[in-house]
Amino acid sequence: MTRIEFNTLVLRQSSSLKLYALHFTKDSDDANDLVQDTLLKAITYYNKFKEGTNLKGWLYTIMKNTFINNYRRLVKVNNVVIQSDDILPANLLYSAASNNAEGKFVLEDINQALSNLSEEYYTPFTMYFEGYKYHEIAEELKIPIGTVKTRIHVARKLLKGQLKDYSAGRTGKVVYED
Length: 178
Prior knowledge:
Blueprint: H1 3-12, H2 14-25, H3 28-44, H4 55-80, H5 92-95, H6 100-115, H7 119-129, H8 134-141, H9 145-162
């Protein structure tokens, strides 16, 4: 197939490509840009197309990959550059340097809570935390796997109770309750 024949076949697919692009972008102008990028890449990489294969599928794959790459690029740029001229007080937390001393106190509290666990709960919990599988812990300690799961569950509950002062810890912010 000649390059002119290929270009003609590719251009005939532009209306179906537009519909496919709308599924990704949900915006007509962005869909047109995506179709244009797809057509440009298809024509540029004409020699990569194998005659006799599914042209529409090949074009859809180019479009999907182009959309994904553009999206990743946009996310990366938005993470690096703040697009707002105003830095709100609520956002200062994310731009401020953190004090590692607070983390040291938290770690000490966690270690204290772990040391308060009895040996029957401490050993399976720490082994699980280090990456051992339930069956490996059961074999090592020579106890049933159900017992291992129960002891790990109980250890979690005990630790959660001892560390309840850090109730907002899941959000990344430590809250001390009086």
